[in-house]
Amino acid sequence: MNAEIKKGLYGVVVDETRVSKVMPETNSLTYRGYPVQELCTKASFLEVAHLLLKKELPNENELASFSELEKSQRQISPDLMKIIDLIPQHSHPMDMVRTAISYLALEQTNLEDRSEQNYVSQAISLLAKVPTIIAYLIRKKRNQPLLEPSSSLDFNENFFNMCFAKVPSSTILKAFDVSLILYAEHSFNASTFTARVITSSLSDFYGAVCGGISSLKGPLHGGANEAVMKMLLDINGLENADDWVNKRLEEKKVIMGFGHRVYKSGDSRVPTMKKYYIDVAKELEQEEWVEISNRVEEIILKKKNIHPNLDFPAGPAYYLMGFDIDFFTPLFVMSRITGWAAHIIEQNSDNRLIRPLSHYNGELQREVKEITQR
Ligand code: COA
Predict the structure, then answer these.
(1) Would you state the pLDDT for residue 94?
(2) If you average pLDDT over residues 284-302, what whole number do you get?
(3) Fewest Cβ atoms closer than 10 Å to its Cβ: which of 114, 194, 246, 313?
């Protein structure tokens, strides 16, 4: 076989999709035809979740019933809380969230129902419960008691209230909402493709989501938002930024939050997220973080011509909002559940088992010798 191998599936088009379109040539991104920047200014994350799961932006009545459905499912069971309590505390929160979702699957009695209607219901259930799981984990790590979800608060207000026992300013709520919109969907990235591969064998919805979470955790994918903040803390002041980055580049090390498989001249989501990161930093009078970020960006652009990706402004924005670093990627999960679900539904609606080939380059056929003669 002499087929050309595209390492990392670079440039390979594996299927069609109607969920989102990444256009690197114009640095733009649309969800079901809507430019993501416009969604950030004119819609909420919940409306975008509706768009991804139900294929259209909701009207007022549709949004009200979608929101009611989400609010009514925020509680997690006492059994799930017991499972969470058993998880070793040294575990990464991504693994904890994956384990919790794996348990949620066991609570379902209709895992084998692959209808679109069931998948949308399961996605809404996760959309409602994952914030409660994350908030429970955040508070457990801080030795604080769980705060019950409140159906009188909207999606973001409720999440912050469960995490920190207060609803933050409108600037922080808006910046968080925008981050969720921008993180919601991005075509055939590694975690989405993983979810589609799992779906293609006719496995269940929760299994596909758990696979997506495992893929997203990696620092070359969603885990980069955590790595970015660790880098900014390690730089430890604007005056050290040049030396830090130059040393790292000399050592030929990867700088987290930079580069992208598809966008080679800038990530379409960065300017929007950056604007809201700056808003948060200004409000909290912590603009030195933005100064360090800007300097790092300048040097890498000048020396390597590599642009920042969404994780670069999202990481420090989450830090300023008060989240612990190891919870940044779980926040990404809270949002990306919607994109994964849209792709799981799409894959399932026109499925063919995903099963590529490989070129074998190991030993040729060998004889198995008796153990005494090897
Ligand atoms: N820092 C330093 N150099 C980088 C870089 C980074 N963040 N991203 C890419 N490069 C360099 C590579 O070393 C390579 O250089 P070379 O041609 O001299 O070997 C070149 O740019 C091409 O990069 P490549 O790794 O082939 O691109 P890719 O499409 O396979 O990888 C990423 C894309 C995202 C995995 C890669 O850019 C990366 O590791 N980024 C950091 C992690 C990150 O932020 N991930 C979140 C993505 S949204």
Answers:
(1) 97
(2) 97
(3) 246
How many Cα atoms are found within 13 Å in the side-chain-facing hemisphere of 299? 18
Handedness of CA 314, 133, 209, 219 (dihedral sign): positive
- 255 Cβ below 6 A of ligand 1: yes
Q: Decide: 123 and 19 in contact? Cβ < 8 Å.
A: no
Torsion angles phi and psi, residue 34, rounded to 5 = -95, 130
Alpha carbons 13 and 17: distance in angstroms, whole number: 11
pTM over 0.90? The answer is yes
| Residue with CA closest to ligand 1 atom 35 | 220
What is the end-to-end Cα distance of the chain in Å, rounded? 31
Which amino acid, one-letter code, is at 331?
Answer: L
User: Cα dihedral angle (176, 177, 181, 183), rounded to 10 degrees?
Assistant: 20
| pLDDT attached to residue 298 | 97
Is residue 315 within 8 A of residue 26, CB to CB? The reply is no
Pocket of ligand 1 contains residue 278 by CB under 6 Å: no
> What is the maximum span of the chain, computed from C-alpha positions, in angstroms?
77
Strand partners, 135: none
359: annotated active-site residue: no
How confident is the model at residue 54, as a pLDDT?
98
d(C-alpha 149, C-alpha 76), whole Å: 9
Catalytic residue among 260, 307, 326, 343: 260
Whose Cα sits closest to atom 31 in ligand 1?
A: 261
Write down the residue that tokens 């009207």 correspond to. Answer: 59
Tokens found for residue 299: 């040097």
Alpha carbons 139 and 162: distance in angstroms, whole number: 8
Task: Please give the structure tokens belonging to residue 119.
Answer: 């998948």
Q: Whose CA is nearest to atom 30 of ligand 1?
A: 261
324 is an active site residue: no
- For residue 236, how many other CB atoms are within 10 A of its CB? 11
The finding on whether 256 has its CB within 6 A of some atom of ligand 1 is yes
Q: Tens digits of per-residue pLDDT, 110-129?
A: 999 999 999 999 999 999 99
Residue found by looking up tokens 């949002």 in the block: 335
The catalytically annotated residue of 154, 177, 267, 311 is 311
254 lines ligand 1 (CB under 6 A): yes
Residue range 300-320, pLDDT digits in tens: 999 999 999 999 999 999 999
Is a pLDDT exceeding 70 seen at residue 1?
Answer: no
